[in-house]
Amino acid sequence: MARTESSLVPRGATPYTPVWLGIDVGGANCKFASHTGRVAAWPFPLWKSPQELGPRLQAELERWESTQAESLVGLAVTMTGELADCFWTRREGVLEIVRQVERLSASLPVHYWGTDGRFHSGAEAAEHWLEFAASNWHASSTWVAQGELPDSIQSGWALMLDVGSTTTDIIPHEPGGVVSNGRTDSARLSSGELVYTGLQRSTIASILRSVVVDGRRYRVASETFATAEDAHLVLGHLAEAPERTDTADGRPATVVHAHGRLARMIGEDAETLRGEQTRQIAEQVLARQINLIRRGIDQVCASRPEAPTKVFVTGHGGVLAREALRRSRAAACESVDLEAKLGRNIARAFPAFALARMAARIWAPSPAKELEPIHELLLEDSAHGSSDSIAFTQLRDAS
C-alpha cells in the first residue's frame, strides 16, 4: 500500500491531538489530510472495484489512527469519483460514494462539501447530488478565498491554478468565495475553468494528433500506448518509480520503459527509435499541454473586466502551470506557489487539506484548543525542512 505523510506538525501538537480529517475520493486516487497538515494518499482505481471503496477507506482510517499522533473527531468529504464509468450516472456515483462513506464510523460526524459553498449531511448530499459531484476544486478555492493564508487577496479577484495528474482547474475567486462561471464539469469545460490535461494520466493521443521527429511528421496512433507521464519521465519532470506498474503497458514507470511506450505512438518500439527521438515526442507533448492550459487561463481572464491580482498555483504539475502562466494574460500577476508555502504533500492533496481546515474552523476540534493559525503551520514546515523528501511518486491526483 502506497502511503505518504507530511512531517509538518503545528507548534504545541501533543500525542493524540484531536483533528478533523479531509477526504478526497477520486476516480483513480484517494487522499486524506488532517487540519494539522498530515497527509496520506494511495492509488485506488474506483472503476475497477467500486464495492471495495468503503472497506479500503475503513482500513486506511484505522491505519491513520494507529500510526498518527492524532485522534479523529470528524470527517469532511469531497469527491470526483462519481464520474467513473463503473457508475451508470453521476447520481448513482454520488449516492454510492456517500453510502460507503456513511458506513465508516457511526461515532464520527461526516460532512460533505457542496458547490454552493457549504457543508451538508449525507442525506442532503444524496438528495441534491449534483451540488456534490466533482466538488473538490470548489473546496480548494473557497479556503484560499476565505483569507486564512497570509497571501490571500483583500480586493479584486484571483485565480487558483491546480494542475493534477489528469486535469487542470482554473478557478476565479474574490475575497470570501468562488466566482466561477460554471459549477459542473461540463459547464467548466465550456468556460475554460476545467482543462482535461494533466501531468500523468492524460493519453498522448488526447494531447497530440501528430508529431515531428527528425523533421518528418507522423500521425500518432489512437491507442493507449503511452500517457503524459511517459513524456514527463523522459523529460525529467517526474522521478522514476520502478515499483509502479500502473502504466499504459503494465511495465515499470521508468525512463527506459517510457521510451518504449512513446515509440509505439508512431508505430516504432524501444529498439527501433533512439532516445533523442522519443525526447522530441516528449517535448511536443509538453508544449501542447502548456498551450492547452494557457488557453484556459486566457479564456477565464477574458471573462472578467480586469486582470487578476494574484494567481495561486498548487497541484503537482508545477512545470506545466508555471510555463502556461508565463505565456498567458495573467503573466504579469503575482504568483503564489502553494507547494513552496505549504510543502509538497499538502499541495498535492490540497482539496482534502482545505476541507479539514474549513471544518476545523466551524467545528472546533477540541473545546480547550483553538485552531492553529496557518502561519504556525508555515513556520513549522520551514523549521523541519521541506517535506519534499517524502516521495509522492505513487500519488495519482483525482482532479
Supply the key terms.
399 residues; alpha/beta; Nucleotidyltransferase, domain 5; 6-stranded mixed sheet; 14 helices; globular; disordered N terminus; disordered C terminus
Task: Explain what this protein looks like in three dimensions.
With 399 residues, the chain is α/β, with parallel strands linked by helices. Among the domains are: 17-154 and 342-389, Nucleotidyltransferase, domain 5; 204-291, conserved archaeal protein q6m145 (Nucleotidyltransferase, domain 5), CATH 3.30.420.190. 36% of the residues lie in helices and 18% in strands. It has a 6-stranded mixed beta sheet with strand order 3-2-1-4-5-6, sandwiched between helices. Strands 7, 8, 9, 10, 13 and 14 form a 6-stranded mixed beta sheet that branches. A hairpin with a 2-residue loop joins strand 11 and strand 12 (216-219). 50% of the residues are buried. The model is unreliable at 1-13 and 379-399 (pLDDT under 50).
Strand order of the largest sheet: 3-2-1-4-5-6
CATH level 1 name of one domain = Alpha Beta
Q: How confident is the prediction overall: mean pLDDT?
A: 88
Helix content: 25-40%
Helix and strand composition category = alpha/beta
Identify the CATH homologous superfamily of one domain.
ATPase, nucleotide binding domain
SS field, number of helical segments: 14
Low-confidence stretches: 1-13, 379-399
The SSE order reads EEEHEHEEHHEEEHEHEEHHHEHEHHHH
CATH topology of one domain: Nucleotidyltransferase, domain 5
